[in-house]
Each structure stands twice: as C-alpha cells, then as structure tokens.
Amino acid sequence: xxxxxxxxxxxxxxxxxxxxxxxxxxxxxxxxxxxxxxxxxxxxxxxxxxxxxxxxxxxxxxxxxxxxxxxxxxxxxxxxxxxxxxxxxxxxxxxxxxxxxxxxxxxxxxxxxxxxxxxxxxxxxxxxxxxxxxxxxxxxxxxxxxxxxxxxxxxxxxxxxxxxxxxxxxxxxxxxxxxxxxxxxxxxxxxxxxxxxxxxxxxxxxxxxxxxxxxxxxxxxxxxxxxxxxxxxxxxxxxxxxxxxxxxxxxxxxxxxxxxxxxxxxxxxxxxxxxxx
Length: 277
Hints:
By secondary structure, this protein is mainly α. The chain has helices at residues 11-42, 59-66, 68-101, 107-115, 122-136, 142-165, 171-178, 183-211, 215-220, 228-238, 242-276.
C-alpha cells in the first residue's frame, strides 16, 4: 500500500522501493565498514594491526587506560573539548540571536564570515592561526588550542540555534518587555527554554569538532598538550600498535553517544513543539 494515497503499489513502485533500499544499505555499509574493520583489531592479541586475527585479548584497552601518555591525552581531549564547546556555545548563541533579530546591510557577509570555519580548509586555517598566535604568544598553550577549537565549533552553534530561532515568536520577547522584564530576564525565562535544545545540540557538535580535531593541535600544541587524535597520529607514524585501534574504539563510542544525545534532543524538541501546537 502507498503511504500517501492508500492505494496498492504498482510493480514499478515496488521495484523502485527495493532498489532505493538496496542502494541505501550499500551506502551505509560503505560508510560503516571502516569502523567495523577496526573493532576486531582493538581486541587482537597480536603486536601489529594485521588480519587475520589469531586470538583475542583486552590488553590493548588496558594499555590505553593505564598508560600515562594516553591518560594525559584523554584528559586534554575532554578538558579542551569542554572548554572550547562552552566558549563556542556562548558566542555562537549570541551571534545567532543577533542575526535573527537584526536586519542590517552586510548581514549575509557577516553570516558567511561566522560560518567560514566550516568551509575554509583546516590546514589553511591552522597555518594562519599559527602565524597569528605566534605574534601573541599563544602557540604551545592550552589557551591557543581552546580558542582555535572554539572558533571551529561556533559555526555549529550558530546553525543549530539559528534553526531553533526560525520558529521562535519574537512577540513573546516584546510581551515580556512590556511586562517589565529586562532583556536578560526575558532571554533567560522566555527565549532560552524554547531554543535550549538547539543550544545543547550546537554545544555537542562543538565538542565533537574539538574532540576529533588534530591538524590545529599539531601546529599549535606543545608535547604536553597532546590530545587523543594527535597521540594516534604520532603512534601511526612512529609505531603502529593495536593500542591505536583501542583508542579508535573509544572515540567511536564517544561519537555514538554524542549522536544519540543529539537525536534525543531533536525528538524532545519535536514533542515540545507538537504539545505547544
């Protein structure tokens, strides 16, 4: 039966549906296959990343979590990612509100500038930041890495909060102002609860962008500021060990949790709109 018309599906429609499902499955397999290939290597008892696997062991996960180098990389990745995401969330939310409420000449240009970190090649961005931060003494510092990652994450916040504000009724803010609420109180009690799912989604994307980033860390970080991606890059270049596969699994699990959280926020926001409607 056709979902739209309720009429029986024709043979051509059935063939088209099956073909679309097969193509979608092949595309999904193409995207997921590299991730599935790394999982068995993380529990291999061999000394190298090779197939076939002769036996299984969890010793590489034990090495990953017990090693001081990897422990430092884990702490740095989460600390830098959380700090950068916090800065990106504040700045991106303010920028999205300003773009949604104001009409001025050059608005499209300002929007393009705010979203440019999504478009500019990361190597060019990292090289430019290196020369800029070198003059300011911010290379080989946590501050420089956090600022670089905050700039990379803020466009995600601008996009998600901007999408949430597209359905926001700005007369609510004028009504709150008419009742004596200050702009800050009106934002905190009226606007923020409505756009909060977009803000949290943008924050998660900003954290993921920082957690997965390696190029700017290579250019800006000192040896003691290594992150998980940088440690993996160094390990591949110096000594290909299954510990890298274990680190990859940890990053995959983190990414899956972030995606699941984003999907939960999306469904919650959708239910809230349906209840409000």
